[in-house]
Amino acid sequence: MIKKTASQTIIIYVLSFLLFTGCKDKAKNYADNDPVFKNIDATVKPGDDFFKYANGAWLKKNPIPPAYASWGIGNVVEEELRNRMKKINEDALKANAPKGSNTQKIGDFYYSGIDTVNIEKQGLSPLKDELDKIDLVTDIKGLVDEFAHLKTIGVETPIGAYAGQDSKNSSKIVLQLDQAGIGLPDRDYYFNTDAHSIAVRNDYQQKHLPTIFKLAGLLPDAAIAATKKVYDLEKFLADSSRKLENLRDPYHNYNKMPLTGLNKLVPEVDWKSAFEQMDYKNVDTVIIGQPEYYRAFSKALKTYSIDDWKNYLRKNLISAFGSYLSKPFDQELFRFYGKVLNGSKEQLPRWKRVLDTENGLMGEVLGQIFVKEYFPEKTKERYVNLVETMRATFKEHIEKLDWMSPQTKEKAYFKLRKVMPKVGYPDKWKDFSTLEINRGPYALNVMRANNWWHKYSAAKLGKPVDRTEWGITPQTYNAYYNPSNNEIVLPAGIFTIPGAKDEDIDDAVIYGYAAASTIGHEMTHGFDDEGRQFDAKGNLKAWWLPQDSVKFTQRAQMLINQFNGYSIYGLHVNGKATQGENIADLGGIVIGLDAFKKTDQYKEGKTLNGLTPLQRYFLGYALGWLGQDRQESLSSQILTNPHAPGFMRVNGPFTDVPEFYEAFHIKKGDKMWIDPDKRVKIW
Ligand SMILES: [Zn+2]
Asked: Are 54 and 330 a contacting pair, CB within 8 Å?
């Protein structure tokens, strides 16, 4: 449901904001700082490859820096803003703030992360207590206790437990169990026969795992033996894990059962005791996402020896914290997860990595300081207004649909009306007062912060759902729709256009960049293949007439077929797994377009830097995907991510939109041409 891919989930802060309403009287004159004109590569025909036409000049001038797997608009903003964050951290360090204050926590966390002298001296010792606990395991009971404990400090185990909203009763938080426990990013990596998957799993078995085991203290022969067993164990779990596209059906991935049912499914585990040790109190019911995975887990507990499981846990412990330990650990994790999987050539400077980690763990603490300075109430209001413009236009689209019955339409209007927008930053901040942060060891700060998050989340069980909560920080270049709350969450960061003064940006660009690609996209998620199955209250409940569902599915299938036809580096896009995102992109574009048609800029029709308002709208949308990826990164994305690569998210849906052809005079015979009867229209 997230707009951007995970690699684009980055820390950025709001430098400036855009005006998108009430600027009809502003004479736009960008000179050479037109945010879309300057990126155009006029040597490319828009009808051949629109993405390259729109962004080509920028792509040529901005090769991917060695430390990055991809480089784009979000990174540019991120670079500017990391410097500001650095200053806040350095000021906090010098402030001598009272123990327990947010300022002390920020300063000391930063100190512990850049204190490489101590980090090198400490080597593996920060994990010694945890490794000792693993050493002491002698039987399945002890092993499960250790799974439970490691879960509370943020280490991957085969038990994918979390406290989350019950899909069928969104006012309740219940314990859920999903497939988990593998070291590669997706189960397909263990089986696929494409070159990327083979290269990744070969390296994992031949270099990465043996290195990690040697670093954990195993002798070379033992490290090789451990690698074989642990890889085999993971492959066994992966074999019973569902493929990405099979995780989309919310009914199929909902299997509610009493604790006695779980005890029957996995009799080797005393679940009551395990859950209590995981801080999950009074659990009597669970929702199992993938029962066949838990059957396999039960079998794996009997098949693999305690020693194999202990090696598996040692490896998972080091994977979780190695990046915060001395160089040998940090470098091996980067070599495999950064270079081999994503193609990065070198690591980011240490201070940037520390800031990124801090932002991930205590982002709201930083966010509070930033929004005070950079996100005034007035700006928030403007975006709230743009959300309402999009909501109204979406309703008009539903009214005009020829494939949906009046009964379902009425319910769709109701759901749309109930979509709750969260804009800019939360009204209420998380309270980190119980989190202890000191000047080191760094890995233990991270461990305590992981534990804080675990406890925070576990404490939600049995309590009313807090619908004001944000799952993302205000300084994030991303956004999301949460079907269980029927909400769109739009942080301040996502609306930033780097290097442009907000009052200078014309509506066309804003409607493409913010209204379509972010607001409309997230709103449409409430009506994509998954989201449409949830009602206005966020409950998984059939509210569509069956014939309307059939017609929706036929249209979605056309989009699946369209994206199945795209490939890169020999890897085909997974049309089924990416359908929700593609439906949201297409919806955002057509609804944003009609919202834009209501503006004076569109009605007046004046060109700006030789570009018509319609052209600028499509260029504004493409600006949201300005960027490029390394081959490894794109390959990983295709295998693991429900989002298609960025350039396809521009070129793909545009070919379905008649105004796109009109705006750029695209004719039959041009590469991007699709015959009108093949064009997909859903919303
Ligand atoms: Zn999305």
From this structure: no
